[in-house]
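[09:14] KT: can someone run the structure on this one? pasting the chain below
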Amino acid sequence: MASYGLGLDYFLNGTLESSHVNHWESMWRNGRIDVDGDKELSRLNYASLYYLLSEIPQYETYGPFFGISAGGLGYGEKHNDYKGHVSWDQDTWVFPAMLALHSGKAKTILGTRVRAHSTANSLAKSMGYKGAMFPWESAYSGQNVCPTTECLNYEHHITGDVALAFQQYVMMTRDTHFLDAEGAADVITDIASFWMSRMTHNTTTDQYKIHEVMGPDKSHYPVNNSVYTNSVAKISLLLPKYALSLINKTVDPQFEETANKTYIPFNDTGKWHPEFDGYKQGTTVQQADAVLLGFPLMADLTEETRMNDLEIYEKVTPTAPSMTWGMFTISWLELNNTAKAEQQFNKQLQGVVRPFNIWSNPADSKGGLNYLTGIGGYLQSLIYGYGGFRIYPDRLQFNPSIPPNTTSFNLTGVDYLGGSFDFRFSDQYMTINQTSPAEGGMKVVIASTGQTQTLDVGTVVHYPRTKAYLMVV
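[09:31] RB: done, structure tokens below
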């Protein structure tokens, strides 16, 4: 009622339209993506950000925000939708785009997981585990609303996906208040405790394994040692040491010890990652799974292994949700194969539905519409693919290239450590403009030469386009 009354006031005093326009102008100033040379791509970028930003409330006067569903609140044709349920789509696909350009919105997303912490504790206990276990699908209460028991019983990687989002946020912001006073540190610790109780210790090999799970590829379950699940569990176990050190708290050393002994399936002969124990090369998969080790998990892989994973799984993924190809785009760009990256970048655009640039899953426009997961994957292919952004504990790396059919690529309002930065990338050059100060002062470091320059607010710096870092002075 309060929002209705506010809208009515705007209407009666003639400011309904102008207030809307002014608000969105402010949003675009604070974070957007621009390209030159391709108007259709430019329109798609604005539409994509608009649909994601529209899902996150500016204020919570109407009640607590409980998260973002893969299809928002839309109801697809023949019920091919997501019923408003919140899953990994929020944490793994939508969140990273918001984190880069609208970190406040990203924090609002993480708040939905903090709010559901006690419910996650209860679910873990009810299933015989410790710590906090998030259900594959949840809604307002945070409780399990999975329509099938298979996902609840096996698709446990979502708890690791939540930890990954927390890791990305903490590294990007070092928000100690969020960790200490707002309860995030407790969520992070309880997620690690969950994985400790979920693992099985093999005394012969002295390795920790995870049995009977479903990875992102839903077409195979239950399996043992999903390479994605084990990898994201390892990240979850390593996170407490880093995050809690920022608030001068110690953690159980067994978290790190277990992480370092977590078994990650690997074919040493062919130098590639089987999706799970017993996976046979050539077996069809449903969507990106093992290839996610390169990004967003940022596992320490050789170029040979990274390329082998991409080539092996591309051949056996005949159809997949559009965000799959966004992840292939990011990985091929990191391997400097721009031709393969462009092919995959364009492939994901098959999910776009004109004229309003919403997305569909599947890409035939007959499934769930306003597919926010596809939008999130697409925006990531721009920010973390063509922008080359990578978040590390001590730096924000960028290694830009230019999207297909464009002449320049601009990221306005990248948020890092409390500051804001505008980036402009062209075929040969890049510029950086710090528009608001970051905590501790900021410098740019050119990776190839070690050249360092301190950044000042409002002073634009120019370089040949290359890999570089933002770091605290």
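[09:33] KT: thanks! The chain has 16 helices and 15 strands.
[09:34] RB: yep, looked fine to me
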